[in-house]
């Protein structure tokens, strides 16, 4: 139900935007922003309210024509094509997709042209005209590759894979699906990747590679649940039910089928629903609940006839024949069997022809493409003759110039190369030394500060497992283990952040940062440690204190300084964090009344290569890494950091960060 609310929220937002535009004094129905909003709202109603999609699509088309807004016309035709496609009216859908693609080609909008041709190909697939479908998929692919429309390339690969799945050529289908997956991984869009992974999961299920199928569908479900995309989530639940059905776990299969069925109450997707109904019928049939299986099989049969889906008719009639045979109603059983047999033979009779047509279409397309390449090569060859003549003339001129200035130029060249090589060698040597120091420090910290607590944890678990320690004795160590785990977690966070800065992997992204929010979050995060030592945490940062910095790096600095203060402040102590806003900078401080430090320790605190491990008032262990990390991040944010401390009198850490006012002046 959360997904439904998210979809409603998107539609409500668009409706409010449209109402605001209409209430404007300068409102005109020819306003392209208004028309685009209508088109966007129409698309939001797909899979949810097809009647609203039709009404809004017609309205946006009419307004686009009056405003001579060609892109609006194309998108409106495309939306109406989607309406007729979902209604199972394939010929009308094709008509609108052709109008959209022709207009997009005419005005040179290649993205809309490619998107529409892909949907045109899909309609021919629905009709069973595979050769035409492949022809338009390849045309779409050519446009998408020419203009680097990576998402469309991946979608076409997905759709070509479905053509091969119809012929049960799973290996060839998987080739195209893996291509699509690679593209989505490069793009980095989790929703697009999840769509392909769900198709891969369905293919693995058909191949009886059920473990691979389950892994991929679980990844897809996690993404669609997070993004709240109903139509894809319903498909994924249905695939998960299919996997359990193939495992002969019919109860679990029905559980996931019913999750999908609940979502189908919120969407309009008849094609997707047919596989769901047939799957539920098969699960109930396996559980010998024939009466319920009959209801679902009949619904699948009626819906398949409505939209002309022959594969749905074949699957549903096969189950109905078996159901009525179990009921000893042999007349109906025979009738459904005859329908099944006729549909099966029809599909089988055309499968070879379709395969040959697909292959022939692809070969012809490749031949045409190769001929164009040859023609281009011939044209380029003629141009190269003139280019070669010009190059020869330039070469002769260059030789004459080189002879005249040979001695002087050679000397300069050699000197320059020598200096450049020397500088390169020095830079590489310095870089390698720095990397080596970073590696040594990382291994030192891992071996010294992480191996010990982890080893102790392993030892306790081993004693407990082997029975050398009772449950009560083991539970007595739980508080100590929690402290060790928290220390390991904190150390790892610092270690990863520091490692990124050393390996040039950390990029400082300045933005307007609310210091008080960061301080409050870290005080809440560390409050449990403070309460354990009865330490008072006092926040003197004014509300809405804004600085110009990288918020993530400031968060790490504040957390490290507060953590250090808690470590070295005795029980019943006090820690104060505050900020002094100056003209150009904000001076932030963290003061404690803890152990304090000697001058020697202060001098080593911020050294980059320091690996000095210290222990707090309750023997809390540190890595010596936190303050070095703080210094690097403060300097990346154009600030400075320093400390005032004396043994037994506590410590006060200060650092500066530019105030937001400076950024305003630069922008102005």
Give a structural overview.
This protein has 668 residues and is an alpha+beta fold. The protein has 26 helices and seven strands. The two termini are 48 Å apart.
C-alpha Rg (nearest Å): 35 Å
Oligomer: single chain
Overall helicity? over 70%
Number of helices: 26
Strand content: 5-15%
What is the makeup of the main sheet? 5 strands, mixed
- Note the gap between the termini: 48 Å
- Strand tally is 7
Shape: extended
Strands across the major sheet, in which order? Answer: 2-4-5-7-6
> Which class do the helix and strand fractions yield?
alpha+beta
* Unreliable parts: 1-7, 662-668
> How much is the average pLDDT?
81
Give a summary of the structure in a few sentences.
The chain has 668 residues and is an alpha+beta fold.
SSE diagram, text form:
Elements: H1 2-23, H2 32-44, H3 50-67, H4 70-86, H5 90-107, H6 110-127, H7 130-146, H8 150-166, H9 170-187, H10 190-206, H11 210-227, H12 230-246, H13 250-264, H14 270-286, H15 290-307, H16 310-326, H17 330-404, H18 406-465, H19 471-476, H20 478-502, E1 511-514, H21 515-525, H22 527-532, E2 536-540, E3 546-549, H23 551-568, E4 574-581, E5 585-592, H24 599-605, H25 626-636, E6 641-645, E7 651-658, H26 660-667
Parallel strand pairs: 2-4
Antiparallel strand pairs: 1-3, 4-5, 5-7, 6-7
Helix pairs in contact: 1-2, 2-3, 2-4, 3-4, 4-5, 4-6, 5-6, 6-7, 6-8, 7-8, 7-17, 8-9, 8-10, 9-10, 10-11, 10-12, 11-12, 12-13, 12-14, 13-14, 14-15, 14-16, 15-16, 16-17, 18-20, 20-25, 21-23, 23-25
